[in-house]
Amino acid sequence: MQFFKNLFSKPLTSTLTITSSNGFHLRPVAKFVSEAKKFDCDIQAIYHKQAVSAKAVNALLSLGLEKGDHFLIEFKGKDAPQAQEKLTHTFLALMQEDKEVEKNINTTHSYRGKIAKGESIYQGIAIAPLYHYTQKEVYQESDATFQGSVVHAVSILTERYEAHHPSDTADIYLAQKELLLQLSAQAQDIETFSELIETEIQTLKGTTLESKAVDYQDLLRLVKSNLGYSYHTALPSEAFILVADDLLPSDIAQLEKSSVQGVILKQSSLTSHTAILLRASGITSLILPATILDTSEQVILDTYAAVLVSQPLAEDLENAKRVKASYEKEAIQLQAKRFEAAQTQKQKTIHVYANVTDVPSATLAKESGAEGIGLLRTEFLFTKKKPTLERQTKAYADIFSLFDDITVRTLDIGGDKALPYIPLPQEANPFLGIRGVRLFQSHPEILEEQLHAIFLAAKGKAIKIMFPMVSSVEEFTHAKAFALEVAHKYQLQSDAILFGMMIEVPSVLFALEAFDAVVDFYSIGTNDLLQYLFAIERTHPTLKVDTLSPVIFTALSHIVKHVTKPVSICGELAANTEAIPTLIELGYTTLSVTPKSVAQTKETIRHV
Hints:
Elements: H1 2-9, E1 12-17, H2 26-36, E2 42-47, E3 50-53, H3 57-61, E4 70-76, H4 80-109, E5 114-117, E6 119-122, E7 125-132, E8 136-139, H5 146-164, H6 170-184, H7 190-204, H8 213-224, E9 229-232, E10 240-244, H9 249-256, E11 260-265, H10 273-281, E12 284-287, E13 298-302, E14 307-310, H11 314-336, E15 351-356, H12 359-368, E16 373-377, H13 389-400, E17 406-409, H14 439-442, H15 444-458, E18 464-467, H16 473-489, E19 498-503, H17 512-516, E20 521-524, H18 526-534, H19 550-562, E21 567-569, H20 580-586, E22 590-593, H21 598-606
Parallel strand pairs: 7-10, 10-11, 11-12, 15-16, 15-22, 16-17, 17-18, 18-19, 19-20, 20-21
Antiparallel strand pairs: 1-4, 2-3, 2-4, 5-14, 6-12, 7-13, 8-9, 13-14
């Protein structure tokens, strides 16, 4: 009898060793924790005298276990022996599984040709000869006027906007158009316009927006092209991979009509408009500062591995073709299952919603298999000019007709988002100033009309209205009261409306109990939350946030444990295939992603 008492009173221990090159990272940790939770006994992981629960993903991740590290697992409780046996086997299996994954990756992306490592813009595999981008400016006298050339350039940008609508990239051309109109209004001729452009480019140098200089260069070229200047870029008729220092947004439009298979940029950034347009166009692309030799032979651009393989062997080419075909087949299979429910291996249903910007993107979300709209960004109605009440109402009504479950975010400008007709004060740090919900204080008339339109379009439907960038309970209650006053003023129904908020400001994490008393629902904007947690602007060219840092999962764990109202995630983390298992493990059951990510997100969930 005493033997059994000692057995259950003394902890059992196992020493485990990390053998995976990736360390004890998110995916295996999530699986390990899932198994640990099946047992009643207390299970702790101990490393360098730091003990944490082995039933908490964020706690295990905080140990930072890397390859070669030894740590102790301690089991104490009535089913400790069973837990020890099961989890020891589970851990060893996970390490072996990781080795197999590494082996597959190495097999998939192991090339014997000359390899140059870069940064992936858009993932894919291209096999073709390199073609180095060259362009010559030729001038021939013209009778065209400066103002006439501006009008012509505006029409081109309008055409590009309409061609790319409804994708988010359409707004790039819209922004260029507004920029052109503003700058051209300050110039009398092409000389002064060129000087203005050069001044703006110099101002951007050394700042976080330096990569946006290509937009100014693009505008100058567009205007000059109707003043007798021509730009000759002869692209091959056969398949090719383009190599360039950088490209202008207008170059992408030409590439889309060519036989380009891939693009390598030497001097761009992942957040530049050129990179965004390459992603939207689905062009396999890479940032690679290294010197790239001219060659007429085939090369492999593998942006899954973020490498350029020059002088590939025959086996390299065969391997690349095989992997390319495999990815293409997988994409077709994903699309075929996009309308099916997303259930985990344990039959837990996870709801996948879409983040949309307008009627076309909401329609795309419907076609992509989204169950609802988790985030309707309303800024799209405000980009060209101040919209009328009628225009807003019609747009909202059209979107509301597509889904039963819709969350509308009120206007979110400020920080890096501005509108020409809403004057915001010059601030030393606009990301910490007037933005989001604070517009209720500074520009109530704009929000009143928007809310009026939402109530009109809802027609008693149970729409969710969400306020962005809330940092205090007072900000939320003021915004909600304002909205209800608008409904009362225009004698519109509001009983079915739910009012929620974005969680993206860290102060909210310390007042969740107070928020829970007044909020109907939450949506977590992980993009801004990461930005404010780490004090790193998300488009900074050199500083990068670790989006899978244990810190963000600790924050997410804290949130889901301290709220009783529905909570979803609408930031980019929701579509991160490596993060999804942990989000589910933490207790999140609703993820909102871009329409294009819906199918992949659902498939990832099915394997959790």
